[in-house]
Each structure stands twice: as structure tokens, then as C-alpha cells.
UniProtKB/TrEMBL annotation, chains A, B:
Keyword Signal: yes
Span of the signal peptide: 1-21
The protein's name in its UniProt record: peptidylprolyl isomerase
Segments forming domain PPIase cyclophilin-type: 58-245
Pfam family, one: Pro_isomerase
Family annotation (PROSITE patterns): CSA_PPIASE_2 (PS50072)
Keyword Isomerase carried by entry: yes
Class of this enzyme: isomerase
Gene Ontology molecular function terms on file: isomerase activity
Keyword entries, A-Z: Isomerase, Rotamase, Signal
EC number(s) recorded for this UniProt protein: 5.2.1.8
InterPro entries assigned: Cyclophilin-like_dom_sf (IPR029000), Cyclophilin-type_PPIase_dom (IPR002130), E_coli_cyclophilin_A-like (IPR044665)
Species in which this protein is naturally found: Pseudoxanthomonas gei
């Protein structure tokens, strides 16, 4: 049998590349570029913007985006500080779409958990003015938005005519569930995308952040009954031990990590290396990369 | 607490729509269109093209695409008939990418399972001539291929200049793992996409089919160690009870299902209803749909 898992690993994981030392103009894989990125290409997220979702299986680390959803992020900080989610659950898991969590009894006034000092009503924050944002544009065509790229490590869509920018729904995106009214989300009910990017939701819902580590703890949660994945039986829900702000956690208990700056040369070069793969595996470089196919590298490390 | 799970369900699952009886020109949701599709809009797949991947958690149903990969599909049929995969395993699960299965000892001549009468070498079948295929094109822009659409229920890319068509890597796509050589796959090692569509693999690898039911049995398989998801410990692998051709299974044990024809009016109308959602939830219809965001409806039912 000629297929060797080691080779298949390289082939399918797209992570290992032939290295021919001494060739000055040789192709460098995205991983090689990232590994060689200088210290200043990495950023340490602000602990006040990091949310730790603690599950039995471990910690999920989320970066919040107050520059896009200041009202929702402020409310989420309040809810976390007041332990709103502790003991609540992930009550929905729909295949190729989202997991959703918060208070499954939120619609029952007799059983709903009190919101404490958090606001009960917030304006929608679907998009914001592009002014004041550093935008690193992808040159690639996109069907969902006039322009796409990155702002502060987040994938975004952008409309130059309207002068607006919004967070895109990619794998790992954290959004605020709402009902039909645009202003019906307050950040207490949240969902994380774990399937093909549902970009039709872009600029239609308030996005509040992105999972940056531990996504695999959410994506393997058994799916609830079709079509929407809500668990009928409470015992099948996944309990949330706690959701905490990293800034409220003792330093020794924080998860030290850094993210590759999306305004760095290394990020642009790694993206180009993926857009046109020139290793021994690829027979036809795509010449394209989709916004939600661009990995946003994270590394363990103390600031 | 104003957020009601029932409303959130509608909002996020995008499946329930307001019904205003009596308005002749009212918007119909994709689900309403599909529910009203006539019998001839549905097709019953050929049992000789259906593969049953039997896991402890249940059955995964795959439709093979012999019109795109005749050599590989013939080999897969032989391997299934000769019980090649029975007792082997899913030995890789990489988050936001693929699960991969076959013989984890395939690289060890002393331990590899014999291939029986299956061919040990096959030509690559990355694409085929477009001639002779009914192509239902999506009008939407795509960055990965000059044209995209559907052939016989499969999402495809198409190059009118080269006159070629290939199966696209979407959620649920089944491909034949290979090493660096284009002709190094024979269909014994297979992978299923369970993350954001890795379309850079299109026309770079032989795609052999698509999961049409039971995808959630694969997508929840715990991820193996990063970065590539291969299990180091054999006991963590998921055992394959059997992979069988439906045509070799007694009729009473088959899974009766039908697929919405991608050349039907209902399919085109449902896709348009998703491209421009006009229900009470959406504030801004996308005006676009991505190839891999188009659901390919399946229903239970006896032919």
C-alpha cells in the first residue's frame, strides 16, 4: 500500500513543505513565513477583551471587538463580571452552522436568570463607520461585500460607498442572537459559527468577537435534533462552568497567547503563500483565497 | 428577558418564515418552496452509487460520482464489496478541515491490509470534460473558478476555456487522499470536509462523492492532536464497522431517501429565496450566495 499517512498528512494538512536550503528565491510556505515572523508581527490581546468560556472539556478563548460593538461588549463584560452565564448551558448545536449558548429559560419570566446590572435593551451594532479603522484589504474577489479584509485581527466586509465596515461571519465568529427586531440582542444569548461561513448574516446581526483558541471544544458538541439543533432534553445540554473576563482572572490562571498582526508583512506574505501554493503537492495554485479561508495564527506565549 | 429561544430559532436557523395567506406575490422561503416541490423535482439515487459508512453512532450515506471519477469509483466499489474498510478506522480529525479514514497502517507493508482485487494504481481524475454534462450555473461571482454551479446534484467548478468541470470541495465532500504525485490516490484512503470549504484543493485532488446524510456523525468526532489531527493513540480512532454499497445491502436495510434535483425549478427558486431573503429577520438581503452555502436538500422516503 503506497499511501503513507505521513505523506497524506503533508498533503492534506498543507502544513509541511519541501525545504531546499540555499535557494535564495525559493517558495516559502505560510507556516515557514509565520515561524520566521519577527516579534513585532505578534500582538498580545488586551485581557479586558478576552473572554474565557470554561467547559468541562477545557477553556475556549474569545477575543471581543469593542471597536465594532461597544454597547454589546460593555454588556458582555458586565454579564461576565456578575457571573450571568455560570451554570447555564450550550443549548443548541446545529450541524454546519452554530452552537448557541446562554439561558435556555430566557423566555420564561418565572425561570429566566436575572440580568443584574446589564442593560436590557441596546441599539443594534451591525456595522460601524469605516473612518478611524486600519483596513488591510484582501485583493480577492468576494461575492458578499464590495471589499473584504482585516481590521485588528478580525475578518471584515466593507462598503466604501456607505462608508461602513462590519465583522464577517467566518468559522469561529461570535455573534449576539436576536429575534426579528434589529435591536433585540443584548449579548446574553450568543452563538459561535462552526460550519461553512454563513455570510448572509453579515451586517444583519451584531457580531461581538471571535474564538481564538479552543474552537474544537465547541465544534465537536453533539448536534441537537434537526433541523435547528435545540436540545429538547436539558440533560443533553453542555454546561457552562463559567464565562469570565481574562482581566478578572489571576494572571497565573490566564492563557498566555499572541496573535499574528493582520497588518504585518508576515501576515500578508503568508496569505499570498496560501493564495498561490507552490509546493510539491499542488498542481494548480488557486490564485485566490477567500476571506474565511485565511487562518489567523495564534501562538502560545507569555507577553 | 426578552429573547425567546423560539424566536432565536427562527432567526438563526433561517427556516421559519412569516406566512401571510392570501397574498399572491408574497415571498416564499426556501423551505416552503422545497416543501411544495412536485414529485418530479426529486430523484432517487442509484443504490450502486450509494456508500453506507457504518459507525457505532449510526450510518453515514455517501453518494458517489462515477461521472467524475470513474476509475476511483470502480475501485471504491471493489474495495467495499471485498470488505476492505470493515474494522479499519477514522484515524484523523482536524478541526475546520477534514476527517480522514482508511488503513492507518497502510504505509507498513507488514501490517497493511491487502487491497484484494482493487487496482493499486489509477490515473488522477481531478476534472473531466464539460461536454455531455448538464450544468446548472449559479449566476453568483466566485473567486475560485470561472464558473460554478451544479451537475447531477454535486457542486462544481467549471472552466469554459479549458472545457473542464470538477467537483468542488464543500462541506461534506468526499475526496481521495493522495501524496505528492497526482496519480497516487486509489480511493482506499478517503477524507470528508467538515469545515470551511477548502476550495484550494479543487482540481488538485480526485473528488469521488459527497455525504448526503449523517454528516453530523463525522463532524462531531473529537479532534486529534494539532496541527493535523492524526490520532497518536490507536484507541482514540473511530472504528469503521463496515463500508458497504447500498446495492449489496438487502432492500429492507437500505436508507430510503431522495434528493432535490439541482436541475429543477424548485431548486433554482429555493436558491434565489436564500440569495435574497425577504423575511422579517433579514434587514439587508445579501444579493449573493456562495456555491458551498447552497443546501442540497435530502428527504426521507421510499422511491
Amino acid at each position: 500500500m503506497s499511501l503513507r499517512p505521513a505523506l497524506l498528512a503533508c498533503a492534506l494538512a498543507l502544513l509541511c513543505q519541501p525545504i531546499s536550503a540555499g535557494e535564495p528565491a525559493r517558495y516559502r510556505s505560510a507556516q515557514e513565513i509565520i515561524d520566521a515572523a519577527p516579534a513585532e508581527a505578534w500582538r498580545t490581546p488586551d485581557p479586558a477583551n478576552l473572554l474565557y468560556l470554561e467547559l468541562e472539556s477545557g477553556r475556549v478563548v474569545i477575543e471581543l471587538a469593542p471597536q465594532f460593538a461597544p454597547g454589546h461588549v460593555a454588556n458582555i463584560r458586565t454579564l461576565a463580571r456578575e457571573h450571568f452565564w455560570d451554570g447555564l448551558s450550550i443549548y443548541r448545536s446545529q450541524d454546519n452552522f452554530v452552537v448557541q449558548f446562554g439561558d435556555p429559560d430566557g423566555d420564561d419570566p418565572a425561570k429566566a436568570r436575572p440580568l443584574g446590572t446589564a442593560k436590557k435593551k441596546l441599539p443594534a451594532e451591525f456595522h460601524r463607520a469605516s473612518a478611524g479603522l486600519r483596513f488591510d484589504r484582501l485583493p480577492d474577489a468576494d461575492g458578499w461585500a464590495p471589499q473584504v479584509g482585516f481590521v485588528d485581527g478580525f475578518p471584515v466586509g466593507r462598503d466604501p460607498k456607505a462608508g461602513t465596515t462590519w465583522l464577517a461571519h467566518c468559522y469561529g465568529t461570535l455573534g449576539a442572537g436576536r429575534s426579528n427586531e434589529a435591536d433585540s440582542s443584548i449579548g446574553a444569548e450568543l452563538y459561535v459559527v462552526d460550519g461553512q461561513s454563513p455570510r448572509q448574516l453579515d451586517d444583519n446581526i451584531t457580531v461581538v468577537g471571535r474564538v481564538i483558541q479552543g474552537m474544537e471544544r465547541l465544534s465537536v458538541i453533539p448536534r441537537g435534533p434537526a433541523p435547528m439543533g435545540f436540545y429538547e432534553k436539558p440533560e443533553l445540554r453542555t454546561t457552562i462552568k463559567a464565562i469570565k473576563l481574562a482581566s478578572e482572572v489571576p494572571e497565573a490562571e490566564r492563557t498566555p497567547l499572541q496573535l499574528l498582526r493582520t497588518d504585518s508583512k508576515a501576515f500578508a506574505e503568508a496569505t499570498e503563500a496560501r493564495r498561490n501554493r507552490r509546493d510539491d503537492f499542488y498542481k494548480r495554485p488557486a490564485g485566490h483565497i477567500d476571506l474565511c479561508n485565511v487562518p489567523l495564527p495564534v501562538r502560545a506565549g507569555v507577553p
